[in-house]
Amino acid sequence: MRFIQTIYTIWQREIIRYLRDKTQIISILFQSLMLLVISGAGLGQMFTLNNFGVNSIQFLYPGIMAIGVAAVAFFSTVSTVWDREFGFLKEIQVAPVSRIAVALGKTLGATTIASFQGLISLALAPIIGVNLSFVSIPKIILFLILFAFAISGMGFFIASFIKTTESFGLLMQVIISPMLFISGAFFPLTNVPQWMKIIANINPLAYGVDVLRQIILNNQVNDISNNLFLHSISTNILFLIIFSIIMVGAAVSAFDKKE
Amino acid sequence: MDIILVKNLTKQFNKLTAVDHINFEVKKGEIFGFLGPNGAGKSTTINMCSTILPVTDGEVFINGFSILSQRDEVRKSIGIVFQDSSLDEWLTAEENLRFHAKLYGLTNNEFKKRKQEVLELVNLWNRRKDVVKNFSGGMKRRLEIARGLIHYPAVLFLDEPTLGLDPQTRANLWNYILRLKYEKEMTIFMSTHYMDEAEHCDRIAIIDHGKIVALDTPRELKKQVGEDIISMTSKQKTELKKELEERYKKEVKEKDDSLQIEVEDGEKFLPRLFNELTTKIDSIELRKPTLDDVFLSLTGRAIREEEISTKKRMHQPIQIRQRR
What pLDDT was estimated at residue A216? Predict the structure, then answer.
């Protein structure tokens, strides 16, 4: 009971802070719009993916959605670094609560905010001409939550090592850029060099993009699917669940050892 | 019962020994002061006692619980106000308190009752809906004290609670701290490098280079360095000197135009002097040894003078007021 209450209290604070900081809300809204409308429409013209048998916007949409969610999940965990910088972390450190509950509360906070970004992308789908079947929507939402949780856990793990906001921003750039490019969002990862395949295999973003694309393109592709998709949906989901557990576990032990 | 019991507590940072085998105990209901210059090991000690810094050696018991093996019980037993603010500035005063109350397992009813109690204690009840970002430094510090109290801790730790506050706010804050002692019988463990603040404490440990160099009541500590000095001037200097020597059997020192005697308890001695002296005196001054003198005599130097410029200006008015 105390455990759940601690998770809820930590989570609630993350959400209050997010809602109170208007610039954060606006930037997330704007980011969704920019990613989808601008890059979706622009890139859509460049990529001719007719040989895959799908419309280019249809191909790009799941990738861009995953990238948007991952970026928000990552940057929401910067709140841990702020807490350290502005001293609030001490208030949490000195409290008689489980460190696992703290980590889960923090991770779920970022998950919630990132899922919200996913919902916006979902709502924008009809506007930019993406076909979504009604049955796929609950599947997409459920998966987005798992995906956001995995990326938030990773962000939180990284954030628990970082002392200042500046270095967090820098590190995120270094880590997140390759992850974005080798996620399969902009080109399929089925016919890439071996080294890139290896990276893709440990890149949680690639798994996220893969699942979303499979859900969204499900009834639009048939025989060519082997050229587009990496793993089965259940393999992808299993990877993300194990990845989340490792990340949150690592974050808890990093958090406990600090100072 | 000793509410805090520190045994051989030691902290080593690489080669630097920040806290070096210190021992002391704090009794229930007292204000215990930790006095020393910056870098003496005050915050390090508080951080170890409050379980956020691992100890290198030694042991601390708080409220009977070991900081090594019963961390959560220790954490429940203490309220703490850190040197730097640890409030969430984006939340309101009330939200900060609620966050804290929930982490410490208070029920909703308990929280409702106590938030009013603690916020009224620090005079912030009508600002409870305001976002902390808009609070002044003194208000933030008061809110932190309120937060530290809401789970009814056995001990309140205050790490330099008045650092960076203006003289008026500091005086007010002291009123709140003293109210806690008398109204709530709270045990308070505080650190400071202001000598004048240490005077409010029931007992003081003077710490320097990680070692406790003296531990006693402020009065006893000052007695160690000498007695109160009364200096007088008079036009009938020789008569006065004679009278003082004969009536009180004191050694009278001549310094410039004034005569000086040392007495044990200056405040009590002055009225006697006024009633009994027959020689006319023109002026009289009572000077008591300060904790500055104590620190000086123990360590051979004054509490570090480096960051004096702004802080000295801030704490001088209070010192003057207290000497009067």
Answer: 86
- Determine the Cα–Cα distance for residues B83 and B182; give it in Å rounded to an integer: 24
DSSP character string of B260-313: EEEES-HHHHHHHHHHH--S--SEEEEEPPPHHHHHHHHHSS-S--TTHHHHHH
B309's tokens: 């410029």
Query: Residue B295 contacts by C-beta under 8 Å, 6 or more apart in sequence?
Result: B35, B195, B206, B208, B302, B303
* Mutation site, B88, B95, B132, interface A, largest A CB count within 10 A: B88
Give me the percent of chain A exceeding a pLDDT of 70.
89
Give the pLDDT score at A11. Answer: 96
Mutate to test the interface with B, among A6, A8, A79, A94 (most CBs of B within 10 A): A94
Say if the Cβ atoms of B78 and A94 lie within 8 Å.
Answer: yes
| pTM greater than the 0.90 cutoff | no
CA distance B226 to B105: 51
How many angstroms separate the first and last alpha carbons of chain A?
28
Cα-based angle B190, B193, B196 (whole degrees, multiple of 5):
90
Cite the DSSP H helix spans in chain B.
42-49, 71-77, 93-103, 108-121, 137-149, 167-184, 195-198, 218-225, 237-248, 266-276, 291-299, 308-323
In sequence order, what DSSP letters do the residues of chain A get, joined into one string? -HHHHHHHHHHHHHHHHHHH-HHHHHHHHHHHHIIIIIIHHHHHHH---GGGTS-HHHHHHHHHHHHHHHHHHHHHTHHHHHHHHTTHHHHHHTSSS-HHHHHHHHHHHHHHHHHHHHHHHHHHTTTTT----TTHHHHHHHHHHHHHHHHHHHHHHHHTT--SHHHHHHHHHHHHHHHHHTTTSSS-STTS-HHHHHHHHH-HHHHHHHHHHHHHHTTT-STTHHHH--S-HHHHHHHHHHHHHHHHHHHHHHHHH--
Rounded Cα distance between B308 and B193, Å, is 11
Q: Do A90 and B90 touch (CB under 8 A)?
A: no
| Shortest alpha-carbon distance between residue B204 and chain A (Å) | 25
Q: Determine, for residues A9 and B102 on separate chains, whether the beta-carbon distance falls below 8 Å.
A: yes
Segment A219-229, tens digit of pLDDT:
665 545 566 77
